[in-house]
Description:
Elements: E1 12-17, H1 24-30, H2 35-41, E2 49-52, E3 56-64, E4 83-91, E5 94-99, H3 104-112, H4 124-158, H5 164-184, H6 187-193, H7 202-205, H8 212-269, H9 283-304
Amino acid sequence: MRPSGLSERRLLWVDVDRAAGQDIEAAAAAFDLEPGLTARLGKPRHESSLTKFADYLHLALLTMESGEGDEPREADGATEPWIHTIDVVGGRNWVMTVHDGSTPALERFEAATHGDTGLGALDAAGLVAALADEVLTGYLEIVEATEREIDRLDERALRRRGGDDLLSDIVAVRRRISRIRRSLAPQRASFAALTRPEMALDDDIGAPWPGLTDRLDRTIDAVENLRTLLLGTFDLQMARAAKDANDVMKVLTLVSAVFLPAVVLAGIMGMNFPIGFFEDAQNFWVVLAAMVALAIVIVAIAIRRGWA
């Protein structure tokens, strides 16, 4: 039997934490939820969906949150951001949320509305949309944190710090961005379905916020922008690597040019021809001086023209 005493000015929000062992079946029974939905709510999943029932709807949201500091939170030592599902069930003047453990999106919303006596004036659709918007806020926080990390990668590339480790970090960020998008993009179908005529439950829960889909699209665009920024970082790293390679080749070319006259003179002087020049042992020092002089001239020309 559903709770009594609810009205257009009184909205009930029930939050159930599976990880804390809270009784989902009791909450589901209080709102007369169908057995199939109750079974779904009892098991953690990693998928986004929207299902309409007779007088309520079920929206499964994939959430990804930032942890302590600037980096996305990781679970069980994994190298990718932590993702889980928030199940939101909304009916006439009531909303039930089901999740596993601490959920920053719900905590942010609760903190923002703490003591707000006007919260009950929201209809169920407004609360569902507000919770979905908080989920998108979590994604945007990760986008901002990833942008800061890409900026740090740019600085490392410019300062010649990181080497091969920098490429590994770029790949790790690229994998993270792909994971964010894979988590976020499938929710477009669920958000868009809220505005379709067959999903209309205005008489029961109210009309969802129409700007929610646009907010999702802007969030996805922000993730796509991360990929563009990271490609710029990769191009910067490749340009730095190409410049370093050119510097090495410049040094090798200069060294070769310095020793080339000496090699040529040594080859000529090593020929077995009966020339009087070879009979005087003092000429060895003349040849050696010529080698040094040519080397000095080549180095001076390189410095004058900015080759070294």
